[in-house]
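[Meeting: bench + compute handoff]

Bench side (C.D.) handed over the final construct sequence. Compute side (W.E.) agreed to return the predicted structure before the next meeting so the bench team could plan truncations. Sequence as handed over:
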Amino acid sequence: MIFRAAAAAIVAVLTGAIVFGQAGAEENRFRFPEGFEKGVHYATVKRGNIVEELFTSQAAVDAAKAGQPLPAGTVITMTDTRDGMLYRYIVMEKGEGWGQDVSAESRTGDWQFQWFNPDKTVNSAANMARCQSCHVSQSGNDFVWTYDRMKSNP
């Protein structure tokens, strides 16, 4: 029985099915969004030597422009460049019912978050509960800090 549990844990790690470090943790249900840069580039955020570029789908932008919640299946990808070098990718994905396993205090609707290294592998040491704790304050914007930027995207 112990061997079976250990084998399942190894398979989960090898297949990228990681668990967030948070109360009411749930399985990470998504992978790196290959081709995200072909979507809508809707914002650039600059803070000193840090440049963040944000991408999503046209369907997400259309929903924001209509003042609606972003649809299930929406992926928001942020590239984080520091001193001109890619530092990481942060990805938010919204899935139907994904928030049900999260405590009410930590819930960000049906959004999950993941940090990917420049080589597109998961940073399993990243504390994604930190992302959730910050995005909770954006409940009026479907938990997305850049929702207004989507709305004003040409």
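W.E. noted at the follow-up: The first helix runs from residue 2 to 14. C.D. will use this when planning the next construct.
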